């Protein structure tokens, strides 16, 4: 009985606090502060990771496939600028990574080995002719 009262008190306390981090657009607008918005195209999940690091309150509104409208508090503009610069660096470094998939590496290695085997046989034949 006593545990249920404590849970209800905690729930009421959490309900009165303003939410932080990722939230719905409605909750963000209910904070009572002015908000700004920016268009974001790309991976929203990687932005979530960076935004949590910078403690930014934000909300996504999906406008199309892989396109979002990102709302954030106007008072957090400096944190948002830093957050966006880190996010853009991550996106650019992902685009620049020229890692070759493992299957292609295996295919290249197999092709290279198949090219080397005939050369070794020709070399062995030349050595055999010289011994005569």
TrEMBL record:
<dbReference type="Pfam" id="PF12687">
    <property type="entry name" value="DUF3801"/>
</dbReference>
<feature type="compositionally biased region" description="Basic and acidic residues">
    <location>
        <begin position="113"/>
        <end position="132"/>
    </location>
</feature>
<feature type="region of interest" description="Disordered">
    <location>
        <begin position="97"/>
        <end position="132"/>
    </location>
</feature>
<protein>
    <submittedName>
        <fullName>DUF3801 domain-containing protein</fullName>
    </submittedName>
</protein>
<dbReference type="InterPro" id="IPR024234">
    <property type="entry name" value="DUF3801"/>
</dbReference>
